[in-house]
Amino acid sequence: MALSASDLPTIFQLLANSLSGDESIRKPAEAALSQFESRPGFCSCLMEVITARDLAAQVDVRQMATVYFKNSINRYWRCRRDSMGISHEEKIHLRHKLLSHLREENYKIALMLAVLFSKIARIDYPKEWPELFTILAQQLRSVDVLSSHRIFMILFRTLKELSTKRLTSDQKNFAEISSHFFDYCWHLWQSDLQSILHRFFALMHSSNTSEQHQEELYLVCDRWLICLKIIRILTVAGYPSDAKSIQEVRQVKDASPVLLHAIQSFFPYYSSFQERCPTFWDFVKRACTKMIKVLVIFQARHPYSFSDKGVLSPVMDFCLNKITNPEVEILLFEQFLIQCMVMVKSVLECKEYKPSLTGLVMDENRSTFEQLKKTISTAACAILASLLPNDRVILLCNVLIRRYFVLSASDLEDWNQNPEAFHHEQDMIQWTEKLRPCAEALYITLFQNHSQLLGPVVVSILQEAMNGCPTSVTEITPGLLLKDAAYGAAAYVYYELSNHLSFTDWFNAALSLELTNDHPNMHIIHRKVALILGQWVSEIKDDTKPKVYYAAVRLLEDRDIAVRLAACRTLCSLIEDSNFSENDFIDLLPRCWDLCFKLVDEVQEFDSKVQVLNLISVLIGHIGQVTPYADKLLEFFQKVWEESSDESLLQIQLLIGLRNLVISLDYQSPVCYNMVLPILQRGIDVNGPDELNLLEDSMLLWEATLSHAPSLVPQMFDYFPCLVEIIERSFDHLKVAVEIIEDYIVLGGTEFLNRHSSIVSKLLDLIVGNVNDRGLLSVLPVVEILVQCYPMEVPPLISGTLQKLIVICLTGDDQEPSKLVVKASSSAILARILVTNTIYLAQLTSEPSLLVLLQNAGFSADDSVLLCLVDVWLEKVDNVTSIQRKTIGLALSIILTLRLPQVVDKLDQILSVCTSVILGGTDDLSEGESSGDNMAYARAQIEGTVPSKEFRKRQIKLSDPVSQMSLETSLRDNLQTLLLLSIGQFCFLAGLETKIQVSEDLADKLTAQLLDISHCLSFFQFCIGCCSIRFHVNRKVTQVAVLFGRILMMLVKPSEVSASFICKSYISLEARGFLFEALLTSNRQVVKL
């Protein structure tokens, strides 16, 4: 039933009650509103509450109504299957009501109304609400400042929402909006700019200004800022990037110089308003920062249009001057200086401003396009070269290091008060948020562009700083702070500076000596030394590594926590280096463990604990000799785990550390089980409170525990069913889940299968047929191992999975490489089942449920499913591994004995494939390798060690029944069987029943003697002779003769086919031709006559 005006009091009261602090009042009100929101008329009632003039004072209730209105738009504005949604008539009413209530006085409600406009416009514009922008543009003509301000709020929110739509039609609509609205907004923005500057001038020279006048001026200022945001959106989203289109965006060229001039015009008011008019001083800061940000965005989106000499040159010159020679007050205006540095960095990094390296372009249009890009890039390069001559580059480098890298008094105070917080602020903050990180980022980019020029400059500054502040200094002097800055500058560009500075000489002459000064003030230099050791790791020579390792561990015991945390990161870099020398570090390991454990206890912040735990994990993962410290590590992990019950991110780091410990302990890992198994049980519980955060790393720990276990303990068997719930929830962790299944199969053997065969079957059924090709390729090897290890037991257990594999083989397209591999691998598994459990596969392929599946998949064929699989094997045999090719060959040879009449038609292809497989051989382990593995196993038993998972898998491969079979023998035996079964059929094909009467006695005699090779040859001679009596040779006779020849050539040795036999006088010329063709096509050696 629809709500009406009579329900307004009820809705209003419920909204008021939903704001109550009393839960007994709030909860029923929220429940009632949730029931009302799906009823027609609910949004209309909310709209009446929002716009009612007599409720203007009820701001909280009206604001709550806007929130429920917004939620209703998200849920019910679009038509949905489970809901009627909002009716077309009510939508028209709501849109009209919104447009009639543009002059909302309360700012918060006006902001929410703008959001409502944007949400509806995203769905309805332009089809259902084409007049939206026309009406808003008409209303903008009002001289009322408040109304125009609110309309600009609506325009900004709506345009921002529409700009995020990515369909081509939506982007085209937005481009049309931009073309119509930009000029109007731009002219209004310029008009407001002049008005604001004029009134600022009057305000600065006036001693008495009314408060109402200031409020109106501030509203104009805010409207001007909103208009600036609209101009930015229209320019950025309304036109494709000129880096791709090479089409000039006029708005960038027109607006950028005006924006720059506006920034310069506002600067005089920055200092004058600071004390006199704090409100407008804040506006000036916001305005200057916003405008320089807009210029940065213009440059990033439309670099070619921005490269115009009238734009790029003045903007870059202005930013460079503000960085290198700012006014005193600008030095305190950090956000503006940051944006100036961002602009310079963006321009220096811009690939469109670098020389083009275009090769030969064949397409004429493309050639013109590339030539145009090259022309613009060349012009931009010339502008930048004129803006940044060598002396200015050197000046900028000096200023960055000597002014912006140097720690300020406030920095030192923050460091002393909270070293941890200072470390993380410097170490993890976004470079665009603080001035020093931004200056460092700009310096790195500048050095990359001018490394040959600036290398000697940085070395000179470094040398000057070290000479001006000896290692014995204990006071915090400007010289010490400059040395800190110079050390930082040298650390950040190690990859280029190494050409100008020898790390070994620097370390021996200065860095190592810095650590001998233990004065508390030296923590400044010690922290920077830690940074240098971590950054220059690739330049550390072998003879210097022991000293560097010692220095890093020594920094880990510094009195300052910021230095110790920096040392943690340095040690991680040193240990993870590909050239890490474990022998040089091993003596420091006990001391390093103790210092890490101590540091975890001392630090307070979460990020600090994570950083130390990361170092511990790295140590465990890269140091081989962890076993002596296992008890101490487990005690430490247990303690930290108990203390971190509410810190899931910290527990993730602990899980990583435990996993590394299990891997490092290898077969001795059961010493961890008392701690690991309870943690594991909690982590893999999908219904646990921390499932979202801990599941992935818990599964990785589970897999590591299994793959490094000497045997399965009872608890590990009990955990396996948890995989079902994990896979049922999602396939996000499929890869590690498949590895876990494989671990259980390899390690648990028959006991595991007896206990959890139904779980295995359910898991495979959940995965196969429900994941993409990549997921299938990960699980198929597990299916193959199961079938290989338990050929008789497993196939009936996983019949549903095998039926899906048959469907995969016989249906779908295999043009994509991944689908081709999936089909080939699936067919190889089915071939293995035919080889090792022939009767079961024959039964499976005739199951009615399989036929239903195939029919649902769109497959229909006249032949049996088994014959269709033969076609797949013949087609995919070259797309599988060597052992799988042999499996398919064996399967094809077995098919010959299954009394399938149509097999004769495929005999030529079958023999060709089998011959190819026999001649190609396999990559199975050689006898020497096999004996080597057996010796390794015997040695492991003698020494008391446990075979690894890979060794067990290798043993499974060695015991594979397929690898022990002879395809040649199997094929010869099965061909003899086929001959026994097919004499009558071949005679029929040759037409012998009508031309030659073969007596029953002769047929019985031949059949009885067919097992003898010589009699096979006699039978062949007989057939050829009978065929030759005929005065004509038809095509079927030829085919029969060739097929018999190929069969015989597989059965006999070349030496048995003698020249005298071929030249028997009673064999006609036609018959001799058949025999020669058979010999040639069977890849056998023909005996020279």
3D architecture notes:
Among the domains are: 402-588, no CATH class; 813-923, no CATH class; 935-964, no CATH class; 967-1081, no CATH class. The protein has 1089 residues and is mostly helical. It holds the Pfam family IBN_N. Belongs to the importin beta family. This is Importin N-terminal domain-containing protein. One of its GO terms (molecular function) is small GTPase binding.
For this entry, give a set of tags.
globular; mainly alpha; 1089 residues; disordered C terminus
Q: Specify the helix fraction band.
A: over 70%
What's the total count of β strands? Answer: 0
The number of helices is 58
Strand content: under 5%
Low-confidence stretches: 924-944, 986-1019, 1021-1040, 1051-1068, 1081-1089
Our measurement of the CA-to-CA distance between the termini, rounded to an integer number of angstroms, reads 102 Å
Specify the biggest β-sheet: none
Radius of gyration, rounded? 41 Å
SS class: mainly alpha
Q: Could you report the average pLDDT, rounded to the nearest whole number?
A: 85
Q: Globular, elongated, flat, extended or rod-shaped: what is the shape? A: globular
